[in-house]
Prior knowledge:
Blueprint (H helix, E strand, L loop, with lengths): L1 H14 L5 H19 L21 H17 L8 H26 L9 H11 L7 H23 L6 H10 L6 H15 L6 H27 L8 H6 L8 H21 L4 H4 L1 H7 L2 H20 L5 H5 L4 H19 L3 H13 L14
Helix pairs in contact: 1-16, 2-3, 2-11, 2-13, 2-14, 3-8, 3-11, 4-5, 4-17, 5-8, 6-8, 9-11, 13-16
Amino acid sequence: MAAAAELTRAWRSWNGPARLHGLDLARALAVFGMLAAHLLTIEEPVSLTEPSTWADLVNGRSSILFATLAGVSIALMTGGRMPHRGARLGVSRRRLAVRAVALWLIGVLLTQTGVPIYVILQAYGILFLLAIPLLASSIRMLWVIAASVALVMPWLLPFLDALAVWDGESGRDLFLFTGWAYPFPLWIAFIVAGIAVGRTDLRSTTVQVTILAAGVAAAVVGGLVSIVAEASGTALPGTYGEAVFSAQAHSGGLAEVIGSGGFALAVIGACLLLCRTPFTWLVAPLRAVGSMPLTAYVGQVVVWAVVALGVFDDTTDLQAFRDLDPFWWFCLGAIVFCTSWALLNGQGPLERALAFLSRKLVPGWHLDPADRVVS
Length: 375
């Protein structure tokens, strides 16, 4: 009886009414997209008429989707539509700070494995800290901040990238410790946009359709910005204009920020709508991965390091590891592990550890089911 009760509890933790299945599906797509960006050799830019290039969709867009969803998670952990106030808000802020430091430390440790990817968790740690003062902001203010940062920072980022602080060995260390591959002065826009989305009624069909439509519109605008900039000669190769208006992955250009930010919103809206239907049960194994994105992300880096050490005695050779064709094995491994864990235990191991740590270091009110949605 005790075992049956535990299995029922585990099942309800990621399939119960408190869980937004569409968010878990979107997180899973972000995880697998980042796996593809790391493990597949993608050389051609995406072209709608060439299916062989469609894998390029994951470059840059997956990490931006990941960041936007992190913002949604922050919103849901701090009250969702009804943001925490007073003493409860203070507890939420301190717990978010604990999570920020823990994520930063995990990111630094993953970087020490030598696996040749830019770990995003150091940037997450900084971004979570930057989000703390914004937890009580209105939805309108959140969108104003997100839009302002998204439109202004692409003009300033080339100057920040050219600073002398990035030079030499100390500059390289600073780059890695700050997660500057995902520069926080710009990427806070995605976190704040996610918080704004998480403050809405995400169970409403109207809201879900609006998120999808707004995302598609922004993606189209981003594409038009790139086309107009190139056609007008504003974005000539090697110029300041190219950096500002670029649509290239991880460029931080206006076209990328608007277009890929819109792509992230569209994916979130589409996943929420799809999971209103029986389709949600067909993708349950994917949702299991999305219910524990930190575990899946950290796990792929650790497994990568172990396999590379065992096969090559070296973790740093990207092409040699890609030549092993590990992508589908990694995806299958993530699905099997996460589904098994979710069925038997519910919340992912690292997610549970992070929630426990934040509660232990910042005692206060007990989490209710709504607070457990994304913890």
